Structures are given as structure tokens and as C-alpha cells.
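Help needed: design a sequence for this.
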């Protein structure tokens, strides 16, 4: 049941992030976390396919396909939220570096921990990164542009379920500690999306370019 809750919740996160990104002409997931997530799904989907396809492997493929849509929204609209000196070639190079780094990090986890432990440890570590980055994205955009309460709640539940499963029921203190930290940041983000402080000042993804230059 906990695995099912997590799978459904994370599927909602990816589908909603793709939908909101296309609707608002922006990207709805922090790009560093997106690169790590996409790499995680591809690495473990390929491993599962080569060793015998399982339900989790099918889910990983579905998640990876949904992430390709989110990646498209980043490539299409991500440069608008960056400073003006970021040219198209520089943006392309930065995006490629993030994706390559995501795959390299996942493969290093597999090489050191083995497939089973690596899939859990890397998932919770990048989940913690994502939780913090979502809060940072809200602050950077000065409001909920390109975000939604569904993403916030589904991410919280999608992480809480495996935290209970692996951290509490299987008594894995490392996973439990990371899961608790994720929960704290996720609830902060849910609170921001419910209260929507600064929503009236939301300037969209291009706000970074238009910030006033402080006088000397």
C-alpha cells in the first residue's frame, strides 16, 4: 500500500509539473533536481529491463517519459528566468552539463552501493535537494508562478510513504533521517502554496532579468 501511494503520488507530481509548465510557459520543477530524477528513472528502468521487467520498472519508464516533457519546458522557457548574459549556446551547454552530471552521479551511486541500496540512497538524497529547491524556486519567482498545490502535496505524500516503509518499518535510520528532513521542507512548501505570500508580486520566470540594480 505504501509503495502504491508513493507511485501514484509521484506520477501526479510529474504529470502536473508537465501540465503547469506547458500552461504557464515555464518549467515547474527545479532543473538540478529534474536532471537527477530523469537520470535515476532511466538508469533503474534500463537495469530493470535487462534483469526482468517488474511493475516498478514500468513505473520508472512512465516517470521518465513524463520527465521528458518537463525537460522540454526547461529547454523551451528556462533561459527566460536567467540573467541576460546567458546566451543560447551557454544555456545549451549548462543544460547538457546538468544532464550529464545527473547520470554520472547515479552511476557512481550504483558503483559504490550496488543497485538496491543506490536506488534508495540516491532517491532520498536528491529528494531532499528537490524539497529545498522548490522552496527556493518559490522565493526566486516571488510567488507561485509555474507551481501548484497539487505538486506540493503529492510530492510530500510521495516521499512520506517510502520514508515510513524503508525508514520506519525496515528500521533504516539513514533513510528515516533524510525522509524527516524532506518532510520538513515539503510542509514548508505546502504552506507557501496554501498561504501564497507574495503572490501579488509574482513577476513570472523573467523576473530575474528585471530586478532593479541597487545604487552605489
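Sure. Designed sequence:
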Amino acid at each position: 500500500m505504501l509503495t502504491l501511494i508513493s507511485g501514484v503520488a509521484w506520477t501526479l507530481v510529474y504529470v502536473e509539473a508537465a501540465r503547469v509548465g506547458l500552461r504557464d510557459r515555464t518549467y515547474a520543477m527545479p532543473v538540478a533536481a529534474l536532471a537527477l530524477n530523469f537520470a535515476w528513472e532511466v538508469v533503474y528502468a534500463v537495469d530493470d529491463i535487462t534483469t526482468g521487467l517488474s511493475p516498478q520498472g514500468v513505473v520508472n519508464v512512465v516517470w521518465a517519459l513524463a520527465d521528458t516533457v518537463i525537460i522540454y519546458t526547461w529547454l523551451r522557457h528556462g533561459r527566460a528566468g536567467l540573467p541576460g548574459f546567458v546566451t543560447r549556446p551557454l544555456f545549451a551547454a549548462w543544460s547538457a552539463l546538468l544532464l550529464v552530471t545527473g547520470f554520472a552521479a547515479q552511476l557512481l551511486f550504483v558503483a559504490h552501493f550496488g543497485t538496491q541500496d543506490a536506488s534508495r540512497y540516491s532517491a532520498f538524497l536528491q529528494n531532499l535537494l528537490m524539497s529545498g529547491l522548490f522552496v527556493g524556486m518559490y522565493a526566486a519567482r516571488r510567488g507561485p508562478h509555474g507551481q501548484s498545490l497539487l505538486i506540493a502535496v503529492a510530492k510530500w505524500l510521495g516521499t512520506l510513504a517510502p520514508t515510513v516503509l524503508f525508514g520506519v518499518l525496515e528500521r533504516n535510520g539513514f533513510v528515516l533521517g533524510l525522509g524527516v528532513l524532506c518532510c520538513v521542507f515539503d510542509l514548508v512548501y505546502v504552506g507557501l502554496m496554501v498561504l501564497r505570500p507574495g503572490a501579488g508580486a509574482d513577476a513570472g520566470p523573467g523576473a530575474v532579468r528585471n530586478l532593479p540594480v541597487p545604487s552605489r
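The mean pLDDT is 90.
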